[in-house]
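Figure S7 source data.
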Amino acid sequence: MSNTLTSQHIDIEHIRSQFQVLHQEVNGKPLIYFDNAATNQKPQRVIDALVHHYQNDNANIHRGIHTLAERSTAKFEETRKAAQSFIGANEAEEIIFTKGTSESINLVASSWGRKFLSEGDEVLISAMEHHSNIVPWQMICEEKGAILKVMPINEAGELILSEVEKLITDKTKMVAFNHASNTLGTVNPVKEITAMAHAVGAKVLIDGAQSTSHLEVDVEDLNVDFFAFSAHKMYGPTGLGVLYGKRSVLEKTPPYQGGGEMIKDVSFKGTTYNDIPYKFEAGTPDIANVIAFKEAIDFIQELGKDNIAAYEHELLEYGTEKLSQIDGVRIIGTAQQKVSVISFEVEGIHHFDLGMWLDAKGIAVRTGHHCTQPLMDHFCIEGTARASFSVYNTKAEIDTFIVALKDIITKFK
Ligand code: C6P
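Tokens for the predicted C6P complex:
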């Protein structure tokens, strides 16, 4: 992450003016939205693109030869190209549209896993995985008699590489872990672990749900086999995601679901499947959301990933320092490399109460286990409060949040 740039490269007022949702009062106070790791807000251009599509272009894609069908198809495929360039993939055909990170991972676990995992094979995940990168692997391992192993972390919430090295053996067939942790903010050393996995012939899947809106991602440079992410965590629509896969790997992976679009030829004797990516896109996809997603990608590209990363890093450092100064606050996740996520607990106050009282002051944070229950077990806690920042957040909002938190601690502890 480049931290040489500063907030001077970010025109915060101009950015905020594009998000109507931020300009409202919640419980009588100006909204402060710090729940961006759950989903971030959508700029007007994304909303406009959705409306424009339904008002002007709506038609099914890849099926019709009429004008609206051709227009919709062309725009849909433009997003595929935009996503390809956004993550540095070699070809647009390596981009598969899914419902989100969860479905992308389920696709790989189910289709790749069913074909390539056998009894005694090992799948390696990490201790800081979201349930979406745990449960699909548990399911396929159970079905195939494969063994699920876990890369351990230290108290800062960083992977212990010396242990990871020992866990990657000839038995390892898949190494699946997140680029950035939704609970701790930790940024993981993808390139290093990918090289270790490839050295034993294992494939690598990266859960990029929390990295694509914050960090530069180049799947060719990282050399990963699969990369999963969600549009809604990068200023795009909900219910839409991407699975990137290397052509050579995708071609050997069987289809996930059967239906229209994923076939070349169907008869009652049998079916031949379509080429990638269509082989994995059965049925009518979320056309409008895919088309609107291009606006979200363009929004990020126009701001520049380096500028976003530098600005969010400033927010992260500012928030971390302010929170650390409050008595009784403990930050969970203190890795050297972090995205703008701060999980914390306050001595004597349950995180749900904290979340409720912050909401009463117009401040939205997430509370609970953040779909990382094994990680909570590691830290011997039930849950945390989590403040996560996007590019439209400000230091002034952090100041208000800190005052609110101090007030809550004084009143309720
Ligand atoms: N994390 C959070 O509040 P979906 O729901 O499929 O778009 O993304 C699932 C997912 C997978 N991996 C990571 C690292 C994630 O952070 C998420 C979603 C949200 O942290 C909702 S639980």
